[in-house]
Amino acid sequence: MTVLPGLTYPLYRLAIIAVGGAVALLLYGLVMKTRLGMLIRAGASNRVMVGALGIDIAKLFTLLFGLGRCWRRCRVSSPGRSSR
Fold first, then answer.
1. Which of 6, 37, 77, 82 could form a disulfide with 31 if both were Cys (CB 3.0 to 4.6 A apart)?
2. What is the per-residue pLDDT across 21-75, written as a single tens digit (0 to 9) for each?
3. Is the dihedral of CA 34, 36, 37, 38 positive or negative?
4. Are 50 and 39 in contact (CB under 8 A)?
5. Which residues on adjacent β-strands are paired with residue 8?
6. Do the Cβ atoms of 73 and 80 come closer than 8 Å?
7. Where do runs of H (alpha helix) occur along the chain?
8. Other CB atoms within 10 A of residue 40 CB
């Protein structure tokens, strides 16, 4: 794809940039606009206080770790990626 006269850039890379931006916006919305994001931010700031409010912070962080692990697995299994 020709971006500027004399400058070509692969369409695949532009799609990767667009997908990366969409994922970043999705994660920003998740963390900043949802109750789950509020609990994650509060637990990262003051774990004891969130626990005192009755939230099982260990379970919440385990869920968050699991989501990160799934994201990592999906990213590695995409075509053209090494399994490192």
1. 37
2. 998 999 899 999 999 899 999 999 999 999 999 999 999 999 989 988 887 887 6
3. positive
4. yes
5. 2
6. no
7. 11-33, 35-45, 47-52, 57-76
8. 19
